[in-house]
Amino acid sequence: MSITSYNGSALIAMVGKDCFAIASDRRLGVNFQTIACDFQRIFKIHDHLYIGLSGLATDVQTMHQRLNFRHKLYQLREERNMRPETFASLVSAMLYEKRFGPYFCEPIIAGLNDDGTPFICTTDLIGAKQLAKDFVVSGTASESLYGACESMYKPDLGPDELFEVISQALLASVDRDCISGWGGIVHVVTPNQVITKTLKGRMD
Amino acid sequence: MECIFGLVGDGFALLVADTSQVQSIVVQKTNEDKIMILDSHKLLGVTGESGDRVQFSEYIQKNILLYQYRNGIPLSTAAAANFTRGELATALRKSPYQVNMMIAGWEKDQGPSLYYLDYISTLHKLEKGGMGYGAYFLLSLMDRYYEKNMSLEKALELVDKCIKEVRSRLVASPPNFIVKIVDKDGARELAWRRTVEDQQGPPSSSAPEASPMSEDVSVQA
Question: Can you tell me the ipTM of this complex?
Answer without folding.
Answer: 0.92
